[in-house]
What we know:
- By secondary structure, the protein is an alpha+beta fold.
- The protein is 48% helix and 20% strand.
- Among the domains are: 222-318, no CATH class; 399-434.
- Residues 27-250 form the Transposase IS701-like DDE domain.
- This is Transposase.
Amino acid sequence: MAAAVSVEVVRWQALLGEGLGRVAGRFARVEPRRRAGRFVAGLLSGLSRVNCWTIAERVGERTPDGMQHLLSRASWDADGVRDDLRGWVLEHLADSDAVLVIDETGDLKKGTETVGVQRQYTGTAGRIENSQMSVFLTYSARRGHTLIDRELYLPQSWAEDPVRRERAGVPAGTGFATKSALALSMIIRALDAGTPAKWVTGDEAYGKDGAGLRDPLETREQAYVLAVACDHRVPGPSNVRVDELAGRLPKRAWQKLSAGPGAKGHRYYLWTRIRLNPAGKSGHHWALMRRNQRTGETAFYRCYSPHPASLPELARIAGRRWTIEETFQTGKELTGLDQHQVRTWTSWYRWTTLVMLAHAFLAIASAHARADTTPGLISLTRNEIRHLYSKLVIEPAYTTIDTLGWSQWRRRHQHRAKTSHYQRRHQDHDLQLEY
């Protein structure tokens, strides 16, 4: 057993080295390139809190200055790394039936200075909160799924405020774009790069946008299954609501089909579809409906394909949307996707891109592990691979000297902060006495 694990560790080191090698040319100098590798290792090290301080301490750097410089001022191309990352993922996971999944996530924030932050609804909290929103694209294939693109949502209040934009380093040519527009730009970028993907799927925040997302996808003859709200109106002479249409269907119209495997087995629902004929549009269009057998709750989708598609296939694609939810969960729990403490545009893109690289490593490693499973054991998951990599590779390299050195650095930093604080309080007190 120990020998088998040792072999796996060697493979993981080679695989991560392969990924870092793919992006090496995007760094102007060797120092930031090597530091980026250490940064990714720190993201994989199982830290309870992930930031430049904790990462630098875990990987043996004496202060967090180098990691902070990597995210803010070092010369490297985060978008180029993203493109190379996508190519690396496709090399290991690509298949012709893959799905591009779009969704957004929110990070709760305090204050008003972090780029893009404002009070807005976020599914993370399930309510309106002070938060920063971003849109992601996941590549979901038979062998695995991981993030391949990201865009930060810049609210209109930010887009129209030149002072805040300048302080946060927002590029001059960046204007307001809806989340659907950001999603479309990522989908087009992936497809133009030759990403094999038969379908696109997403929730109703994207399905409701006909002109901004559905129509452009149809123009490219890109098939999609996009959720819509219950009050979505079906195109046609009657312009009826989709939930009213579902209520008219007889019981025999519904079929029990799987939306794909879940943690506890296949996820069965009742499914049906109605053929649509939107005026002036080619291809095949449907209103797809999914009903929970126990609660009767019904979900609705608009579907398009340039070629015929069966009801079981549409149900399977609709069920693939959960992969981005799992990706967000593992990205946050395993690689610190939501733990960034950066305020500027450049730092956010750099942090997020390196997190994506770390997560892609776990996704690819777990895909290879599933192909070589030991009888009597489940295959190695992303969680287990991250745990073993941290314990067997990263922690042994961390020495007592490093621990003591960081203790002294933290106490020195805290002493300076305390001294500065007391000096300001003393100065404020003196000014009050003068008046």
